[in-house]
Amino acid sequence: MTPLTHADLEIRLLKREPAGYPVELSLDNQRMFRGGFITPDIADWTPRRLDAEAGRELFNLLVQDDLVRSAWDLIRGARPQRRIRLSIDSSAPNLYAVPWELMQEVGEGGIGVNLAASDATPFSRYIALSQEYGEPVRAYPLKIVVAVASPANLSDYPGGLMEIDPDQEYDALQVAVDGLPVELIRIPQPCTLEAIDAALSNGAHVLHLIAHGALSRHGRAVILLANRNNQVRHIYADEHAGLLALHARDAAQRPDALRLVFLASCQSATADPTDAFRAFAPRLVQAGVPAVLAMQDLVPINTARAFTQAFYRQLLRHGEVDLASNQARAALLSGRWPAAHVPVLFMRLTDGQLLAPNPARTALENILADPRFSFFDPANGKYIPLPVEAVHITGHQDLSQFQAAGGESTASIDIWNALEEVLERHTPHDGHGDGPRVLALLGGYGSNRGTQLKRIVWNTARMSLNPGEADFVLPVYIDLETMPSTSLASNDLIEKLVAEKLEAIWPGAAAVTSGLLAGREPLLRFVFNTDDSLPEREQAAWLNRLRQFIIQHPQHQYVVGANLETFDARWFAGLDQHLLILQPMSRRRIRHFLQHLPANDRGGLPLLERLDRFGIYDLAAVPWFMVKLLSHARDGTYPESRTQMLGKIVDDAVAGTVDRMTRSSQTPTLNRQGLHSHIDQILNALAWRLQTGRVRELSLADAFAIMKAVRGDREYSLERMVEALVANRLLTTYGIDSLRFAYGRIQAYCCAREIIARPDREESLDDITSTLGRLSRLHWWEETLVFSAGLLAGDADAVAPFLEIMVYGMNLLESERTFLAARCLSEAANQPPPEEIASLNDTVTAALIWRLQSTNEPDSAQRSRAAELLGQIASPRAVEQLAKTAYYQTRLDRRGGAAYDYSNVRMAAIIGLLRMGETDQEELLAGIDLVLTELLYLWQSRDVPLLIEWLDQDVNTSAQGLAAMALGDLHMQLKLSPEGQPAAQQAIDALADKFLHGEMDEATHWAVAYALATVDLPTVRQAVLIPLLNNLDTLLPPGARGLQQLKCLAYLIGLVRWQSPEARAFLLERCIRDAADPNLMAVAIDALARLADTRDRLLMEAIAQGEPPADAAPHFASFSAPNQQYLRRKAIDALASLGNEDSLANLRQRRGGPAGWNQDLEQALYRTSEEIFWRQYRDDGLTLRVRS
User: Fold this and answer.
1) Which of 748, 764, 793 is the C-terminal boundary of a domain?
2) Residues 519, 373: one domain?
3) What are the φ and ψ backbone dihedral angles of 645, each rounded to 5 degrees?
4) In 10 A of CB 784, how many CB atoms?
């Protein structure tokens, strides 16, 4: 965003002639338009109401002459941003009484544009003087003399005048300028002219005068001040304006000369019809005051105060007095304050620049001009606004479980929305409570962390410069990755960095840095990006210095970007920590993003079709890969499989490495093709060593030893090769002496290449697949095996034995193995497949369908994954099962009754169906139900009104649930474009109303809750969560409906991971402590597991052991044995998120306790053990660096 550059348009109204008042328009003092007239009746114009219609009428009177209208249209078309100076000749005094500030031009779409309230047209009444104004002053603080005239005998004045309360008026002005760099100088009572003169003599930039004004019996303009006895004294424009204006002389030489007079008095701007300069406002300007704000009619007190507050805030942002006046008037109009046209500005400035721009504003403009941040300006077209989101947690969670969270469509929040939630609505620290607040943005390599931090800087600067923003927030970006490591040892590192960065953007920052840090205006938002390559000790040392800096300056805001793997909550001990953990982009968000790219964008729908066909959303979920996908697609190259796509990316990166090495090489004989081959071999060898060693990184010594073995005696530098590989994002350094692959999938791909190239390939694959019994081993090798299938896809003789090993060599009735086999088959797919592979497809499809049944797979997340893979297979048998899962009651509840599957499973099934074309849908779903086909059509055509009709009907409950999920999905799609936002709002309103007030069956209620969870957190929080929690007893229906509402509310809180003390208290108290219903307690346990607050670990362990504390769950003992068993299993499942090794040890120790133990609990404990093992000691012993 760049500041508006206004053309200069002077409109001169001259002495009346027989045809009327001549009008001249001058553009930039170069082009003159003459010959037009305004009707002579304009001086007597008296509309019935001073409203928008009157404003349009007045404007039409100004341009009713064809010559004037043509000139106006020509100027507006050429220069839409123009400073309007209305100059009324002294010989046309009748025109001063016309309320020109009311004028409205009819703009596009028939909408009236108030010329005196638009940023594009700063408006003033101009009085030309030969005296130069000089350079605008840097008036910070702005000295304002406040004079409130309240003579004791006002009520005795002819006609009776309302008394003015000096204290009340002064207090109101203090509120108006609170937080601004302003010094108020109050005139004591009685408020005399002499006292004002004395105060101005000591130096002041503004006189703010609150008094009564009137026309005397002789028509002379007077302001009512007090004499020394506090009685009314008339101050006449023609006698006393010059005295006040003396203080404005020599403004160029005197930085504290008078710049502005603000006459907050009734009728102080109304001119005497016989002499325009006998009224105070124009008389002060003629006498030398640069600008005067006055009232041209009676004005309500609240209107005057609202105008005053907005005016001073805007003036101190940019220093342009006419623009500030327009913006203050716009604030009155938007707030529906009456008499917005009454304040009127007279000035002798041609450019409106009364004060020098606020240095904070200059700093913000410098930030926006910085190439690091101007990259994000949509006008540049460089930044790709990928749907990157994060999960917001508060520092009480075990972070390791979020490290590999896969593209889940609920619980994430846009980075900017989260920042506003955490920082902008936070009261600066006052020394009490949890300490100063810090927001940590956590993500690994390629998570888009650095880009998002810079986007925060750009967006902060852009938003601060928006006219509607009351105060500046100045971002200060400090990137440690660009600093030499030797400088990080300095004890005053942070202070030096802050001073250096401020000096780069803030004029004269060296002299004011300490004041900026100590003050609150402007608010500083520090954005730090840590250096992932720093050794842990050095990183911890500088972060400790940062923590001390935050404690010393708690009034400012802090965002710190760090690697999730290395993050340690102890870095910010004593601070109020909020963590945003960057997530892989979800499949739904990717689809929405691509669907809303322009129709002619080859990276839009054509790329989406390939992602659907080949199921490569997991790779597209990584921002760097997604950018590469878009780039290739826009060049006309589309993915044909996950393996082919990643191979293309790696090949391009290796080519970039070769380019870099050959450019810098001193060896002319370096062969490009041979070097490319060597680098491929080196990458494969490194990947094989890492993968078989089950480690993520190698020491530089070990890595160079492997490289040397491949290089042999060839003449190229391994050090330069590593630098080039890092620059091309294939490898990355870790600490000071380790090397790793930049992305785990690139390591897996290169390892697969090594396996396929090995002479003992079959033996190697057999060794790997035979050791996949543990979940951790399977996870470790899964990607490598899938890429191996893709690499073999073109060789039918080789791929068939490999796939047979994957299908027949494992127990397909175990979920993870089923999914691995399905992924390998999908990656090796050919159309049509050979007969032996088609048979394998049938076997795996049957296994997935078996896994989709709740009786076979109790975990809904696993059933959801089975549905996703079936959607990728898309055979008629798979489609039929997906349709049944989405539309029919395929699940057995705890009582053995038929029920719809959980909403996440139904949604996965629906997405699989949505991937098909309309013709395929009609053919394959014709035998299921025509309503399902219609709902899919409405979903794809984004028909919100008809979907709402399906939601509101109560005959077909299956259709109700699907309509709800469609509305949630469409809300997020439609809000991406301005034209879709009304329908998006309609969708969320319908879902919120249904959830809060609607009558529906249980299945529909769950579906509505899930649909709301697919909406962004700020929206659902404002629409549902806060209203319901704040008014729970009022909104909660009685009986069974109320119980169902509580369950769905707990379910929704868990799905969106709402990290709120109120939400957690609701779950612990209302749903567990006070609940006499085991099903409600079960839902609350699931929700607490998703919130993942480790403070709830002990409670979950106690419930799992069957012995929860009586004060935490008093009703547990009264539940039946099956219900207790059910809750214990739920608690054990929850410990997969909340527990640790100690939890497992406690449970194993207490298995023989009074509550007993059985095989069902033992199986649950085994699953939880595997999850905890994988989460805390990922990769068979590779200890994560994340600490809870």
Assistant:
1) 748
2) yes
3) -65, -45
4) 23
Contacts 24+ apart (CB under 8 A), 482-488: 483/531, 485/531, 485/534, 485/538, 488/534, 488/538, 488/541, 488/542
Tokens read off for 825: 């088959």
Q: Are residues 1042 and 1083 in the same domain?
A: no
pLDDT band at 401 (very low <50, low <70, confident <90, very high): low
Assess if residue 922 is contained within a domain. no
Distance CA 447, CA 452 (A): 9
Question: Does one domain contain both 955 and 1096?
Answer: no
Asked whether the CA dihedral 277, 279, 282, 283 is positive or negative, the reply is: positive
Report the candidate in 430, 423, 418 with the shortest Cα–Cα distance to residue 1059: 418
Same domain, 146 and 294: yes
| Segment of 287-291, 367-371, 680-684 carrying the highest mean pLDDT | 680-684
Average pLDDT over the chain, rounded to an integer: 86
Mean pLDDT score, 896-910: 90
Strand partners, 82: 7
The label of the residue with tokens 């879709």 reads 980
Same domain, 376 and 456: yes
> Could you tell me if 998 and 1130 lie in one domain?
no
pLDDT surpasses 80 at 344: yes
For residues 958 and 888, the answer to whether their CB atoms sit within 8 Å is yes
The residue type at 955: V
Tell me how many domains the chain contains. 7
Contact by Cβ (8 Å): 538, 571: no
What is the model's pLDDT at position 276? 38
Q: Which of 585, 601, 617 is the last residue of a domain?
A: 585
Cis peptide leading into 467, omega within 30 of 0?
Answer: no
Do residues 358 and 319 lie in contact, with contact meaning Cβ atoms separated by under 8 Å?
A: yes
Rounded Cα–Cα distance for residues 1047 and 1036 (Å):
12
Helix (H, G, I), strand (E, B) or coil at 993: helix
The partner residues of 558 in beta bridges, in order of sequence, read 526
Q: What CATH number does residue 450 fall under? A: 3.40.50
307: domain CATH number? 3.40.50.1460
pLDDT tops 70 at residue 1033: yes
Residues 112 and 154 in one domain: no
Range of the domain at 113: 7-121
Continuous H helices in 744-888 = 744-757, 761-769, 775-792, 796-808, 815-827, 835-851, 860-873, 876-887
507 shares a domain with 655: no
Taking the model in full, what pTM does it have? Answer: 0.74
Inter-CA distances, 271 with 38, 94, 297, Å: 20, 8, 11
